[in-house]
Write a structure and sequence with these properties.
By secondary structure, the protein is an alpha/beta fold. The protein is built from twelve helices and 18 strands. The strands form four sheets. It has a ten-stranded mixed beta sheet with strand order 9-8-5-4-10-1-11-12-2-13. It has a four-stranded antiparallel beta sheet with strand order 15-16-17-18, with helices on one face. Strands 3-14 form a two-stranded parallel ribbon. Helix 6 runs parallel beside helix 8 (about 230-255).
Length: about 475
Amino acid sequence: MLIAGCNSSEVAGTNAVAQEDTQETAAPNIILFVADDLGWSDVSYQGSEIQTPELDRLAAGGARFDRFYAQPLCSPTRGAIMTGRSPVRTGVLKPFEPWYEEGLPLNEKILPQYFKEEGYDTYAIGKWHLGPNHVSYHPQNRGFDYFYGSVNGFFNHYTHAVWRGVDWQRNGETVIEEGYSTELIADDVIRIIQSQDENTPLLLYVAMQAPHTPLQAPEAAIAEYAHIEDETRRVFAAMVSEMDRQIARVMTALDDSSMADNTLVMFISDNGGNENLGANNGEYRGGKTSPLEGGIHVPALMYWPGQIAAGTEYADLFAVEDILPTFLGVAGVDQEYPLPIDGVNKWPAISQGIEVEDNESILVKWSDAGADYDYAYFKDDWKMVQLMVDGTKQHSLFSILEDPYEQNDLAAEFPEVVTDLVNRFEAIPKGKVAGLGSPPPPTITGLGGPGSIEADFRPLEIPPYTETMRTD
């Protein structure tokens, strides 16, 4: 039975029948927003020149996370959200490119499947990026009742094409429509909120494709940042502000609904920003793709008036793997997991200040250059980093609470700590790395790759992605 964050004292004085009815209907709604390539210093509540008034409001009205860690790349983070497991276990250690045959392994039980078992309606809106080329990997076939968005990792935000084919669908059917993707995503989320049966709880996964390249935004949004001289930063800022405006529209719809008082909202970025493509990670070293702080230490918040005190600052480590068990904790689900998970339910700490033991966290990706893992291993106050440099493993060690900007490498002073953390990592059962040895086909050329600032407006010369999906 699901209980919406209340304790026995709050329902004292009600009769048994009324109490049971309340419990039966009080399953909380959960909405998760995921930004794409947003850096630590790209929201105004962190001091950015980019204006994000809605995210500022949510952060002030709920809990902001001082130490939220994502994986250093998009697909690894998304896989960790869905499974509660480290990418080193699942093998999702690289972005799923449009030509990859694999996806998030099908033996993994994922987030919507848990919530479907508890009677939830489940929705995935926006970017999937957990397996593009076989329908079995797509969200509508993995526990989500409904999917609207793209299965790849990037596209033209107006034509919805990746390279030269449209990747925009609703439950497997290509949608040809005009419009800026950030706004279209918000339109669909608002429609869902307004039409949702108030007696059925919802899990709503909203994966924005902003501010990922190509850098595109409405002209009016770009004009707001005319004072920013660097054009890349200017358009990036406009994308972030437009995302904030669309989140505000969603929150207005939520506030106007009957669900507002019983909905947890969470916002995160999927990895640190790429400072060559407009982002700003503040004083943190590194950026997207790096297990140094700039690549993994990202903005995050939770908002639920009445359940999370306004102005809460959550200072303990919260890793992306913690999202699944924490959401299940929010819903009151006592879950046994079919495979070992790495996440921990942090809800008692966030909502009630109850101390929760920190888990050991691993932020990891596959290094194509070194044919091995780049990773950060957190244990207690230590952070150990392995980077592949010219095919050689190089290790650094930081006392991360005292040295958050990673200026003082203690590996030589504490070699036994490095050895212990390396051994712990090596002992973890490793999943098969998805995407190894998969070169792009000849049709995947030219503009429009994930690192391209400029959008690809060439004529569409390949079929929409839904028409080429494998089903065998």
